[in-house]
Amino acid sequence: MREPMKQEPKIGATPPVIIVGAGHAGVAVAAGLRARGWEGGILLLDAEKETPYERPPLSKELLKDGAPDESAVLRKEKFYQDKGIDRLPGVTADSIDRQNRRVLLSNGSQPAYHRLVIATGSRARPLTVPGAGLPGVQSLRTRADALELKRLLVRGTRVAIIGAGYIGLEVAAAAAARDCQVTVLEFQDRVMSRVTSAPVSRHFERLHGQHGVRFVFGAAVTAIEGDGRAERVITADGTVFHADVVLAGIGVMPNQELAADAGLECRDGILVDGDGRTSDPAVYAAGDVTRFTSPTDGASQRLECIQNALAQADRVAAHITGQDAAAPEIPWFWTVQHGVRLQTAGVRHPDDDVIVRGDPATGKFSVVYLRDGRLAAADTIANLADFRPARKLIAQGTRIDPTLAADPGIPLTNAILNDPTPADPTPADAALAAARI
Q: Closest Cα to residue 166, out of 257, 247, 228?
């Protein structure tokens, strides 16, 4: 265990820790610093003016007919006051002066920092086709986006959704439930192709079809047309899809510009080590904006999930205070569509061996993914009994018997193969070990 760093114990005695971004990662860093005994100042910059709120409900609960327009907050406003966290709503960082450890803010001030944490998250990837700026073309990333979309999703509205990822499908489910006419245009040949396997994709495609959602695969959108607002979506083969509302759900981009302009190493995300440190030891980053080496398989990755944001925030707070953080956790994700929950543990690779546990026709099944004989990831559909042990077995790099794993009547923990030799350490294991020395 490292020796705790010496802290200047009084708030205001030294420059504060400045956190840029008040999403899940930024708020968790601030809370984590106080929980770990940090007595120095904390300055939390929040680009939005309202109290920091949860993001996942924006494409799920908030869009439901009759659901309240308010989002659940990450922490009540009183928390920031009680913990001495100075939250600056509506203020962003324009640039970083690393040499003098100062941040130029949008309000004109230039506060100094003891440590800087960049938690700027990500933004919706914009459409780049003609007509993408027409009224009626929407993205979904903020509460304001969700409220505008909710206002537009009235009965009978023709909705064209570009992209069949989590966001696109969650909005498709919400729109169908509000009696809209929904068409999903997807360039690939199945839904959620980036994050799951064909059996899961086909199950959710059928589920949406049962609720009236239409899918068009191999669709490359080339233009959006309309007289003053979006009315038609045009694809590369010349097909015209009439629409009153167009949602672009084509992924996200990391908000790394602040870091890149300051000379920090970035590559589709700010590069960080196992403790959240960037290429400047006084600057950290956490959440969707980061790229890091997976501690399980050594792959370079950028994860867009709350679990990763909170885990990285904990590591940043621990390192700043000179304490040990919890061991790296297996990443996990979830989506809810038409009331059906898909939970994923681990990160699937396209060449993993795919084993289906159970009959998808029943609506309750799992898919497990083996990599070199070891459990690497799992998808569970309405099947929590598999999800919990899968997370544990993935973390242990456990060898699994494929025949036993394919039998849903056999618990995953009973499908373990005796493995006298542990998994070889990955490059990430060595990097994490070195970081702790």
A: 247
